[in-house]
Amino acid sequence: VxxxxxxxxxxxxxxxxxxxxxxxxxAAAAVAAHCRALIDAAGxxxxxVKPQLARFEALGAPxxxxxxxxxxxxxxxxxxxxxxGKRGDIDVTAGAYATALMGTLPTPFGGVxxxxxxxxxxxxxxxxxxxxxxxxxxxxxNAAVLxxxxxxxxxxxxxxxxxxxxxxxxxxRLARLVDSLGAGxxxxxxxxxxxxxxxxxxxxxQPEHLARARTLMPRAVFLxxxxxxxxxxxxxxxPAFAPGRAGALIAASRSIASAHRASGGDPAAAAxxxxxxxxxxxxxxxxxx
Amino acid sequence: VxxxxxxxxxxxxxxxxxxxxxxxxxAAAAVAAHCRALIDAAGxxxxxVKPQLARFEALGAPxxxxxxxxxxxxxxxxxxxxxxGKRGDIDVTAGAYATALMGTLPTPFGGVxxxxxxxxxxxxxxxxxxxxxxxxxxxxxNAAVLxxxxxxxxxxxxxxxxxxxxxxxxxxRLARLVDSLGAGxxxxxxxxxxxxxxxxxxxxxQPEHLARARTLMPRAVFLxxxxxxxxxxxxxxxPAFAPGRAGALIAASRSIASAHRASGGDPAAAAxxxxxxxxxxxxxxxxxx
Lengths: 289, 289
What we know:
The structure is a homodimer. By secondary structure, chain A is α/β, with parallel strands linked by helices. Chain A has an eight-stranded parallel beta sheet with strand order 1-2-3-6-7-8-9-10. Chain A has a two-stranded antiparallel ribbon with strand order 4-5. In chain A, α1 links the parallel β1 and β2. Chain A starts with a strand and ends with a helix. The model of chain A has no long low-confidence stretch (mean pLDDT 94). At the A-B interface, α1, α2, α3, α4 and β5 of A face α1, α2, α3, α4 and β5 of B.
């Protein structure tokens, strides 16, 4: 999975902006051009893109438009789109977030199309009644939801690793939520028979948790971020692929987009080469299950 | 606190849209008009507005513009703005979310101004290293962060009430994060001496937790949502005001915007009347500490 995490101060040299417009409009155009070039270069070695919504939001309304354009470019290139927004809220608010990403909002002036993504990351802190609206909207759109279970950052230990009185860390309780909420999704729309439409974000930086996570969530797609810049190693991710090669998605962002800083040369060529290298590693490890 | 949670299918009759434009543009204009009218009617009885970001996001780029216009209208009316987005992510991504709300993003084309809000709600599931970037951006902007601690929905029990092996529910651990991260914020910018710049979202539907929450977070501003439609009662919130009248913010959304459905008459008059009634109750209960 090609992570799209564009810093406007570190775009590829070819990512040009129009000469006129507000700073937000010009930066959003440059960010969109950068992401399109990155998709063109590394996309053929990937199955999906994962835009980091924060980066687009920081550009205001033009950023939201750029996100829509980038998602469309990725779809045209045959890639799935995973909106990494880690949204989470209750009730109608959760429904509105889900609609923005995977649905259509009814208004008196006609329906407002959401981004039309294939998967969206969701924060489960508020509990099942805050997650169900996301699952409902996703299911109606033949899309999927990926709940944060054990994230890749060191601070994840503060909360997700809290040991429960009932036994096991908190993230195992989140894993059980993933497993129970995904129950209805296996019939159709799953990328592979036996996979559910509620998956889990499991940081690649803690591969020691993957076998246990697989026991708790046998049918969930795992999104594995944290490879590369954060220190995760692809060759340790084999347990994630227990249900088959479609059972896990390995995501890398900076290590692909900034590959030229380590290797030198053209950014696009370096990105393609790094993406192909990671694909090869992923293919090997996914066959070792 | 006046919650802004506009459903495009349930706007006030006076909230008109332009005759031309895309459904998103027209609906966003109508939503902005509705919010402005609501602020004009109920704002004088309030200290802040709390836009629900999901509702604006579901309208795409025009929705983000509408959010900016509504925030500006509220500021012009002398109100604080609390962005209720419940964002949460790690590292540079957390920084980007915070910048979108409370900072300025540097780009080669000039700085892109964020929404300029005074407070933002943040989801702490990813731990302290995911919260610190929000606190840093907020502190630089003389703004504040409100962490979800115990939310108002029934499902909050699934995760936030999980009993820890070390004793106490998970939300108490989140409360301790609030208290420790807010330490540096009391010196200036606090609305009242002794209050910190990291606060807590404590659902008004569980007033039995407030006394314990105050013990754990003596200097935190509490945002108390869930009054009205969700069943929270103002007269049970006195413990939240232990540090003084600025120690807690009582939020209501649907009970104000939809007051005319219960009482009949003009939506603006009904909203003003309900906001004034809640202000009176809040004033009484905040003096009972």
